[in-house]
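INFO worker-7 received task bundle
INFO bundle size: 2
INFO processing item 0
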Amino acid sequence: MLGWAGTVVYCLALYLLFDFGYSSLTRGEEQQRAVRIANPVYDHGFSAKFEGQDVWGEIRYPLITNSLGFKDASPRDVPLKSSSRRVLLIGDSFAEGIGMKFEDSFPGMLQEAGQARSEKIEFLNAGVVSYAPTIYYNKIKHWLDQGLRFDEVIVFSDISDVADEATRNSCLDDQKQLPKNCVPLSAAPAGPPEWRPGDSFNMSIRLFNFFRYQLYWLAGTQDQVLNSNVHSAWTIAGAAVGDSYSPLGIEGGVQRSIDSMLGRLRDR
C-alpha cells in the first residue's frame, strides 16, 4: 500500500497529466497562427476574411474577420467608401472583444444598433489586442492611405498604453531610429511560437498565480503585485517598476502616447 507521501505524489501526477491533456487540447495554436499575423506598418493584426475559432486562456470562441481584417459578424467584403455614416472604432483587447464572438462585444452591439436605425450607421472595429497610441495612429493612417473613408474615429485608450509605448512600441518609430536592442514583432522570424510551460499546464499556472498574488497582499508586499502587473503601475506614485518601462521609461511612454494621440493625428 502507498503511504501518504506516495498518495500525494500519485494524485499530483494524475492532476498534471489531466492538466497537460486539457491544456494541449484547448490552447488552439493552429488557429492563432492562422488569424493573428504580423504587419510591417502597424505591427500586428488579423488576416482578412478569416472564419474559425480562437482561444483566450481556457475559452475557445468563434472569430470572424471581414475583407479589411477587422473583427466582424461575417467574412463580408467591406467597400472603401460607404453611402451611410461610418464610424471606425480602435483600441486594444477590450475593444477587440477578445474571448467573445463579435455580436457579444460592444462594437458588435453598436453595429447591430446602427444597422437597425432608419438612417443606418456602420461601425467598423479595427481594435486588436496589445494595440496602443502609436499603433492606433499607424493603422488609421494606413487605411486612410488605402482609400478607406469614414466619418468619425473613436479611440478607446487603455491603462496599458503607457507601458506599451515605453517598451515594445518604441520599435515603431517613424524616423526608424530604433534602440539597438529593439526588434518589432513584424521583423521577428516566422515560425511556430516558442513553447512555454503555461501552454501545456495552463490550469497549474493559473492556480500558482492566484495563490502568489494572495500571499503578496496578505504579506503587505504590494510592490511585488505592482511589478507583476506593470501595465498599470505607472498610475501609482512611487511604484517600483525596475526596468519594466525600458527603454523610454514612464515619462517617455507618457510623452509618446501624447504625441501619437494628439500631435501626429492633429497634423494630418
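INFO item 0 finished
INFO processing item 1
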Amino acid sequence: MEKEKFLELNDLYLEFKVDKGSLKALEGISFYMKKGEILGLVGESGCGKSITALSIVGLLPNTAKISKGEIWFKGETLQNMKEENLRKIRGKEISMIFQEPMTSLNPVLNIGEQVMEHAMLHLDISRSEARKLAIEMLKSVGLSRAEELLKEYPHQLSGGMKQRVMIALALICRPELIIADEPTTALDVTIQAQILDLLKKINKEFETSILFISHDLGVINELCDRVLVMYAGEIVESAKVKDLFINPIHPYTIGLMDSIPAPEKKGKELYFIPGRIPGLEERKGDSCRFSPRCPKAQDICFKEHPKVYDVTGEHKAMCILAEKEES
C-alpha cells in the first residue's frame, strides 16, 4: 500500500519586497512528501533551500511574502493560517533543526530550561514530567550525561553535543515531520556521520519524515530516499536517489556530482562549477537560469525557459536535454 502524501507544496511563488517593487526568490516550487520518508533538498548556497523550509513553518522574514501557490499539511493549508494556529503545529507536528545550534539555543538559559519549556508548552505536562522526558530524550540522542547536561549552558557544550540537544528539542513532541537545514555543515566528519546515523535511527524507529537540506549530494545519497535539486529558486531535477545517481540529466546535477570528493579522484584537481548563481535581480523568465554556467548550453537555452520533462515515473528534469529521455 502506497504511503499517504501528507505534505505538499503546489506551484509556490515567494518574493522579497525591495525599494522599487519586489524580487522573486522562489518560482513554481512543487513537491510532496510521504509519511516516513527522507526527502533531500540539495543545491548551492543561495538556491532557495532554506527559504523554502521557512515557508513551510511560517518563519519568513518580514520582507518575504508568498505571492502564489499553496502549502498543504495533513489536509490543511499553512500559508494563510493564523499565527496562533500555526504555532500549535510548529514545534509539535513539524520541528526544525537549524545549521548552527549556537544561534538557535538561548545562551542565558541552561539546557534543561530550554528542553523542558518546549515540552511543557506543547504537551501540557508538569515540570517534573517535562524533566523526566527531557532526560529521556537527551539520552535517546546519545547524550549519556543527560542529568548533568540539564544544568549546563550552550557555551559549555561541543558543537556535536549542541546539535544533539537541538535534535532532542525537535524530537521531544514526537513530530511527524522534521526539517533539518544543513544540520551537519558546521561539524567535523566524525560527528557528521554520527548525526546522520542518528537521523536514520529516528526515521526508522518513529517513522518520522525528514526534509533534509544540504549542499552535499554525497550526504544526500547516504541518507535520503528521494531528492530535489534546486537552482536559483527552481527545482531543476527530482528523482529517487538511486535513479538520480544512475542517470543524472540536468547539467547542474552532474556538476554537483562531479564536485563530490572520492577515492578515485585522489591526486586530481577537484571539479567545480564555473561562475555563480544569479542574484534575485538577475533572474529572467525567458531563459534557462543555468545556461551561463552550463557546458552543454544550446542557443535555445538562452532564449526560452525550459519546461519540466518526465524522464521516468518519479524522475523529472527542467532541461532541454531531458526531451529525448522523456518517457
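INFO item 1 finished
INFO post-check item 1: The first strand starts at residue 5 and ends at 18.
INFO post-check item 1: The mean pLDDT is 91.
INFO worker-7 idle
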